[in-house]
Each structure stands twice: as structure tokens, then as C-alpha cells.
Specification:
- The protein has 306 residues and is of the alpha/beta class.
- It has 11 helices and 14 strands.
- The longest helix has 17 residues.
- The chain starts with 5 loop residues before the first strand and ends with a helix.
Length: 306
């Protein structure tokens, strides 16, 4: 590494997005990357270690973490968090990491927001979004001189998310499920493009908005269905489930029936935020990094042969 190397610390490199962020950063010759990992998961980062990544084994909720974390963050330009979990992780662990970043005089902290407009929803509309807004509120009080940048990307354009987790499509039966009129614009970005934009924000020496928005594509529900049909050559039957108020009732009924079965109703909370327009991005800034050409929906469907 040269004297002009930029140190970036990454937490969550063992996850799908975290791994892609690590590789996007390693594509930058000026980057010196440190990855924080729980001791039990250190073996998963053997490939990154071989690429020269410094692996720091640490538990963020361990009371003895202080000195080790201070050493790991020493000299860092940015800290990127791709850790996922409940409030104890998204709020608790990330605040501990932010506190250490502030003490180490790190310039920028990027939390694991990576979603639609988390600030457009009200409390209770999406439990995961609630946690991220709770972190944002606490971070504003705790950040000191650290810039906290939330990267919002819409929904992940991915077979496991848009065409899986959300429950918006059932490609096996050729169906798509709609509440409301389907005329609201929605944003989609691949994991790979999210990682590439994140690497740029981590290294950007200019002023970046605290809520930084990018998107690979923006389509309404009906445009999304049409895009799939045109590229795949397969017909999609739209199942009209009712109004957005009906969707509210459906979510509440599922929560009351199976409160512990989070995946029985959480996907609908995300889908509601998109169909209602509350999660819509309003200041998409792809132009800040014009060398990134994010993948649109049609190209992704073609590439994945969905």
C-alpha cells in the first residue's frame, strides 16, 4: 500500500451484500480494507484474507471490545456496516460501532440501511424500517463529527427479493399480486450496483447527503409486470387482492394469527411501503458517479433467465 491509501473498515463482510461491498472496495487500488468479523465466522473470510484484507476478529457486543475496536478503526476514512439482525444489532451494535468511529475521528459512517426511503414510513408500518429510523435518531445524537450517510436503493432487484421474499411474484404459477391501483412508481437496484455505489460513497472526499439515493430502475407495478413478460416471453396473471386498506387489514390479521412467524407478514410490510409510494426515493443521485451504469430491470431478467 502507498502513503495515499484510504483505509475503510467493513462490518458484515460475510453476508451477501457485505461480500459484494468488500470486492467493490478491493477493485479500488487506493483502498486498504479491514473487515470486522465475529471469531466464529472468521473462517468465512479466508478468500478475502488471501486478497490482502486485514481480518479483525471482534464481537461488537463484547464489553472488552474497546481497545481492539479502537485499533481496528485507527486511521480509517470510513466505516461501512452491512450487519443485519434485530434491534440489538441494527441499533445496539451499530451505535457501538459509531461511538468507536467517533472516538477514532473517522470521517464517515455508512449504516446498513440499504432499503427504500426509510424516512418516508411511519412507526409500525415496517418493523425493520422502524429499527433503522431508531438508529438514525440515536446516531444523530451520538455521531459527533462523523458523517452518517444512509444509502437508500429502493428494493433489491434480485430473484431472492423482488421475485422471492416480497411475495410480489410467484413465477412458478405465473402470478403477480396487487393491492391498490399499481400506478405508483417504485425503485429497484441490484445487490452488485448497491455495493458499487457504497464503495464510491465510502471513498468520496466531497460532501455527501445524509440520505443518499440511487436506483437501477424505476417502474410501476404494471410496468414491472410488462417488463417481465416482454423479456421472458412468459405471461403473468395479475391477481388483484384489493385496496391498500385491504392490505393493511391483511397484514394485521396475519400478525395477530402468527405473531412469531415474521416471514408470514414482514414481506407484505415492505410491499405495502412500495405500493403506497411511502418508500419512494425522491432525490436519486446516480449522476454523482456517472461511471456506474446500474442494471435496469429488463437486463436483470434477461441475465437471470427468470
Amino acid at each position: 500500500m502507498t502513503e495515499t491509501s484510504k483505509i475503510v473498515v467493513l462490518a458484515g463482510a460475510t453476508g451477501n451484500l457485505g461480500s459484494l461491498i468488500a470486492h467493490a472496495l478491493l477493485d479500488k487500488p487506493e483502498v486498504r480494507l479491514r473487515a470486522l468479523v465475529r471469531p466464529a465466522s472468521a473462517g468465512k473470510l479466508a478468500a478475502l484474507r488471501e486478497k490482502g484484507v486485514e481480518i479483525v476478529e471482534i464481537d461488537l457486543d463484547d464489553e472488552t471490545r474497546g481497545e481492539k475496536l479502537a485499533t481496528a478503526l485507527n486511521g480509517a476514512l470510513s466505516v461501512v456496516s452491512a450487519i443485519q439482525g434485530g434491534p440489538e444489532v441494527v441499533v445496539g451494535d451499530q451505535l457501538r460501532l459509531l461511538d468507536a468511529a467517533s472516538r477514532a475521528k473517522v470521517r464517515r459512517f455508512i449504516p446498513s440501511s440499504f432499503s427504500y426511503n426509510i424516512f418516508g414510513l411511519g412507526d409500525g408500518e415496517n418493523i425493520n424500517t422502524d429499527d433503522r429510523r431508531a438508529f438514525a435518531r440515536e446516531a444523530e445524537k451520538a455521531r459527533g463529527a462523523v458523517e452518517v450517510i444512509h444509502i437508500n436503493i429502493g428494493a433489491f432487484l434480485d430473484r431472492r427479493v423482488l421475485f422471492g421474499f416480497l411475495g410480489a411474484f410467484d413465477l412458478d404459477t405465473g402470478q403477480a399480486f396487487l393491492w391498490g391501483d399499481g400506478q405508483t412508481a417504485m425503485d429497484f437496484t441490484t445487490y452488485e450496483d448497491t455495493a458499487r455505489f457504497t464503495a464510491e460513497v465510502a471513498l468520496d472526499e466531497g460532501q455527501v447527503p445524509s440520505a443518499f439515493e440511487v436506483a437501477g430502475d424505476t417502474l410501476t407495478f404494471h410496468e414491472l409486470v410488462r417488463a417481465y413478460e416482454e423479456v421472458s416471453g412468459k405471461a403473468i396473471s395479475v391477481v388483484k387482492k384489493g385496496s391498500l386498506a385491504d392490505l393493511d387489514r391483511e397484514i394485521e390479521q396475519r400478525r395477530q394469527a402468527e405473531p412469531q412467524n415474521v416471514y408470514g407478514w414482514l414481506p407484505l410490510m415492505y410491499w405495502r411501503g412500495m405500493l403506497s409510494g411511502k418508500g419512494k426515493l425522491h432525490a436519486i443521485a446516480n449522476h454523482r458517479y456517472p461511471w456506474i451504469k446500474p442494471q435496469p430491470v429488463r437486463d436483470y431478467i434477461r441475465q437471470e433467465r427468470l
